[in-house]
Amino acid sequence: MKNFGIFALFLLIAPNLLVAFDLFGSGGVNEIELDEKYEKTKQTMHSFKNPFFLVRGSISFWAQTGDTVITNDYIRLTPAEKSRSGSIWNTKAVSFKDWEVSMNFKVGSTSALGADGFAVWYTKESKRAGNVYGNQDKWKGLGIVFDTFDNDGGNDNPSISVFHNDGTVSYDSGSDGKHQALGSCRSYFRNYETKIRLIYLQGTLQVLTKLQSQADWSVCTTVAIDLPEGYFFGISAATGGLADNHDIFKFEVNKLVAKVDTNQEELDKINRQAEEVDNEQFFRNRDIPVNNEENSVEEEDKEKTDATAEKSTPPAVTFEQVQTPPLPPPPPAAPVSSGDVPQVLGNLQRDVELLSKTQSTLQHSLNEVQNALAKFTQTVEADASRLENLVNQNQKFSETFQNFVNQLPTKDDLRSVNVDSSDFSKELQFMRTQLDELKKTVEIKSRSTITAKQVESLSHNIAEIKNRVEASKQIQLDLEKSLKTNQQQLHSTIENSSSLGFWIYFVIVQVMFGSAFMWWKKFRDESSKKLL
To answer: Residue 205: left if φ>0, alpha if ψ -120 to 50, beta else—which one?
Structure first.
């Protein structure tokens, strides 16, 4: 019974295991081999890679649109928010036929489901916003769609699909473009950092994927397609009712150039012949005569002389005898025909020309580096000068600010200030009241029409009032003098007398003084009323 349960469980999970193995792409197609037959050359103008160094808020040779945000570590085409779209496009058209694209990206969010996805474009037009993953519909060129939402309910998303449009076909988003795709595969890249490779070679496009948990590349799909030169690379993304972050870390384009196909055996033969040609054979083929008979006679005479010397001279140990035995003579040089020598010389001449061109290129590069270094040095010196000025200005500002702070009153100084705020407020309120009354009086006077006679009469009255005021001032002075005199007399009288007659005299004087004061006050009030 236990074994039956295990078998039933296996039957239940077997389909899921098969689907899981298919999530990473189809494995029945071989990967296009590039390393042995093609050379890769990175195209900087068509590539970017983190960390990003922004120039005026953008990456060199790239332009972003919509909600795209560029940070130091990634390019976020859309945030995980509803109804957002963004893109980034290469501003330089591709000028070569065969290429390879390597891209690192991550699509995902904290939600269980996300949407809508993103696409890699190779199209005739660029920076055209629209409703197809942030790009225009009816595009002309290649579109590789990374779809994260299952619009048709086929339970086959996330998926990667390849589309080719001639500019007349509208994308069918309701069916996720299934009947329009040239090729597709299911790839569960959502919430995983994923790498893809797009290889376009001699009319064939291949899409390869590698998820974060994979060690090897998996072939997603391979399609036949004709892509011309002069198109633009771009990446766009969009969200709908559901949302994901669409982040791009790397987009690198390599130019593919076929390696030169040469006959290696023939090259080896030419090299061996070049090494074995000695001077005698070389000059003989150049028609320079060599007298072999004279050389042979001289060699025979030399041998006879050496033999005679050996018989007459006793043997002695020489330096040559102490040395190691001589090496065996080299094998005779293989004959070289006159037709092979020009070919060898041509190879040498080509090598010299190539070396000369390489030297010229290196010299030119060295000059550019020196010029760039000189400009960089000037910039550094200018920046150092500006920095020094800023430091001096900062120091002066610090000194000025410190002096200002030192001149500020301290808490003790503020405590020592004793101001009666209540009296000051009363005085201020009184002044406000007086100003309001004066303002009302001026307004009333300004409303009335004043004739010339009235002005003259008013001037006369003002002069008369002025005279009366002066007269009242004189009377006031006389009263003050009289009061002082009476006070003195009163003091002396009080000191000298204490009778009833004194007090009667004192009362009479006070009544007279009070009457005079009341008359003066009435006169002053009447003068003030006339002035107003």
So the answer is: beta
322: CB partners within 8 A, 6+ apart: none
Closest CA to 122 of 66, 151, 162: 162
Reply yes or no: is the peptide bond before residue 98 cis, omega within 30 of 0: no
Q: Which of 331, 204, 212, 194 is nearest to 275 (CA)?
A: 331
- In single-letter form, the type of residue at position 190 comes to R
94: left (phi over 0), alpha (psi -120 to 50) or beta: beta
Q: Report which listed range, 6-15, 195-204, 392-401, is most confident.
A: 195-204
Place of tokens 């009341």: 518
Three-state SS sequence of 416-442: HCCCCHHHHHHHHHHHHHHHHHHHHHH
Cα 394 from chain centroid? 28
| Strand bridging mode 204-210 / 193-201 | antiparallel
State how far the Cα of 160 lies from the Cα of 221, in Å rounded to an integer.
Answer: 9
Q: Kindly report, residue by residue over 263-317, the tens digit of the pLDDT.
A: 555 666 666 666 665 555 544 554 444 444 445 545 555 555 555 555 444 454 4
Q: How far is CA 414 from the centre of its chain?
A: 52
Adjacent-strand bridge partners of 161 = 145, 184
Q: Give me 132's structure tokens.
A: 């197809």
**DSSP letter assigned to residue 189:** -
Q: Which of 271, 261, 264 is nearest to 340 (CA)?
A: 271
List the helix and strand counts (H, then E) for the chain.
10, 16
Q: How confident is the model at residue 148 (pLDDT cuts 50, 70, 90)?
A: very high
What three-state secondary structure class fits 234?
strand
Cα 525 to Cα 375: distance, rounded to the nearest angstrom:
91
